[in-house]
């Protein structure tokens, strides 16, 4: 009886998650099921949901760069470690498996000639004892089967092969193996059929005798655990290096970004001459260069606009000044002629006088606006009785039935203001109410204290007119703005409320317009006072805007 050299069957090694069992595809348990994909949200939706849970301070560029570097390093380290572990583990187990199978084959070949063609129980026991004796120091356990006979060496402890392995060994002429986990210890089980040659053609046939080997793989498992420990340490070192490299890279990337942020803030504060140092030739260098070019163009444009604006202000001031002298002479002449006007000549003189006065007022308003634009408007403060000053303004321009006043008593409300500008504010508000509203106009003055404990002198001017249109409300204090185009040829120049607002802001005050529920418009002026009731302001006496 002869034996054909058996060869091992390669099977895909799987790692069972629960029991740690590793075996070939020839011995896969029917209970083992393949993995299935779990349906869920797409990657973009998952990423957005994950980012939404991140606190706001951690969404900065530095944390994101650091996280990206660490994740990439972690993925690279784990991927490299997993591949290295798989290859090393496969190599260790493959080498051990080849050595065991070859040794087992040699042992079986040595005893096969002494086994009868139809062995009984005693023959099987003798065969397994011989194989075990030849490998007594290897911790082997041997089992032989033939028909209904089975023999073991040693007599107890052999783990029965799975039914799939028993069937595979009976049907094949090559060795079959599987790895199993018994009581938490890895073991290799090898099944080797004994064949013989038949006839003149030396046809190989199965003898029906099968030898099984069970050998512990504790040493190999130790090698694998040592590899896992080494890979874990290498991964930890790689992650630490990745964090250090990420910090260095993030600092290098964020340095020009921080410089760009500082430059942008300085530009927003009005420093248009700010520039960035351009180093390198990457995208950040291109961004810095683009910023410098944008800043230079913006500075040039703003400089040109300021030059044109200064020319415009100077032109208005010069024209107003040049017009003021002849207008003064014309006004004086028309005042004299008004005393002697009669008939058609008198009517013509009246029209000339009205036009001259209106033109003179427009020129004066333009000169005042030009002073505000040039920053040359000055405050000449004096401590006065606000109520008495407003009372004189009203009495010198309008009849009592036109304006109703409700003012504090003499000496009750004193403040440091510019009397001339207060007169302009009061006169413009009352004149505007009389032109666009309906008399009588009501003027009130009182002291109010806000939530911060700041005292304000509050002047309110209201009328009985139709009020201000909602679309005109945001533009009511703009220059040359007229709420109705039908009043384009009225006495109003469109500068009165703008000059009023500038005078109020020059005092550090506030002005606003609104409509009353009962009808009519109301303008409110608030001038700041000291806590003791005396006036204060944002400008020093005689200061400029």
From TrEMBL:
Subcellular location: Cell membrane
GTP-binding is among the record's keywords: no
Residue stretches making up the Histidine kinase domain: 318-531
CDD domains on file: HAMP, HATPase, HisKA
Transmembrane segments: 236-257
Species this chain originates from: Streptomyces fumanus
Protein name, UniProt field: histidine kinase
InterPro entries per UniProt: HAMP_dom, HATPase_C_sf, HATPase_dom, His_kinase_dom, HisK_dim/P_dom, HisK_dim/P_sf, Sig_transdc_His_kin-like_C, TCS_sensor_his_kinase
Catalytic activity, as annotated: ATP + protein L-histidine = ADP + protein N-phospho-L-histidine
Biased composition (Basic residues): 7-17
């Amino acid at each position: 009886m002869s034996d054909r050299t058996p060869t091992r069957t390669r099977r895909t090694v799987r790692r069972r998650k629960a029991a740690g069992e590793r075996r070939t595809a020839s011995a896969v348990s029917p209970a083992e099921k393949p993995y299935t994909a779990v349906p869920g949200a797409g990657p973009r939706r998952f990423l957005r949901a994950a980012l939404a849970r991140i606190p706001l301070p951690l969404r900065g560029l530095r944390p994101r760069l650091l996280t990206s570097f660490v994740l990439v390093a972690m993925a690279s380290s784990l991927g490299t470690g997993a591949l290295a572990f798989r290859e090393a583990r496969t190599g260790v187990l493959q080498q051990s498996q080849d050595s065991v199978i070859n040794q087992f084959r040699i042992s079986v070949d040595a005893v096969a000639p002494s086994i009868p063609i139809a062995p009984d129980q005693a023959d099987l026991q003798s065969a397994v004892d011989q194989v075990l004796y030849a490998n007594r120091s290897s911790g082997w356990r041997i089992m032989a089967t033939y028909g209904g006979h089975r023999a073991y060496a040693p007599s107890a402890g052999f783990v029965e092969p799975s039914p799939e392995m028993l069937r595979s060994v009976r049907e094949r002429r090559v060795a079959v193996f599987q790895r199993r986990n018994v009581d938490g210890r890895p073991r290799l089980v090898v099944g080797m059929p004994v064949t013989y040659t038949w006839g003149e053609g030396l046809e190989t046939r199965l003898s029906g005798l099968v030898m099984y080997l069970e050998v512990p793989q504790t040493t190999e498992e130790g090698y694998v655990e040592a590899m896992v420990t080494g890979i874990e340490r290498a991964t930890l070192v790689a992650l630490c290096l990745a964090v250090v490299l990420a910090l260095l890279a993030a600092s290098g990337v964020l340095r020009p970004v921080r410089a760009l942020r500082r430059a942008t803030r300085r530009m927003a504060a009005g420093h248009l001459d700010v520039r960035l140092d351009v180093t390198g030739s990457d995208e950040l260098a291109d961004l810095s260069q683009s910023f410098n070019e944008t800043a230079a163009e913006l500075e040039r444009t703003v400089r040109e606009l300021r030059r044109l604006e200064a020319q415009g202000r100077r032109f208005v001031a010069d024209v107003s000044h040049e017009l003021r002298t002849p207008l003064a002479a014309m006004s004086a002449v028309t005042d004299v002629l008004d005393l002697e006007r009669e008939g058609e000549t008198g009517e013509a003189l009246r029209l000339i006088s009205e036009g001259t006065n209106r033109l003179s007022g427009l020129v004066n308003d333009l000169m005042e606006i030009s002073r505000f634009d040039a920053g040359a408007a000055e405050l000449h403060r004096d401590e006065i009785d606000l109520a008495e000053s407003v009372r004189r303004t009203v009495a010198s321009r309008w009849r009592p039935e036109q304006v109703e006043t409700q003012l504090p008593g003499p000496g009750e409300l004193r403040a440091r203001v510019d009397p001339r500008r207060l007169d302009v504010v009061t006169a413009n508000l009352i004149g505007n109410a009389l032109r666009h509203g309906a008399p009588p106009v009501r003027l009130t003055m009182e002291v109010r204290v806000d939530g911060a404990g700041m005292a304000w002198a509050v002047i309110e001017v209201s009328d009985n007119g139709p009020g201000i249109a909602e679309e005109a409300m945001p533009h009511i204090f703009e220059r040359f703005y007229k709420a109705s185009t039908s009043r384009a040829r009225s006495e109003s120049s469109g500068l009165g409320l703008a000059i009023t607002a500038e005078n109020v802001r020059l005092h550090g005050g506030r002005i606003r317009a609104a409509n009353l529920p009962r009808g009519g418009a109301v303008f409110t002026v608030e001038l700041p006072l000291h806590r003791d009731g005396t006036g204060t302001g944002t400008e020093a006496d005689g200061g400029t805007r």
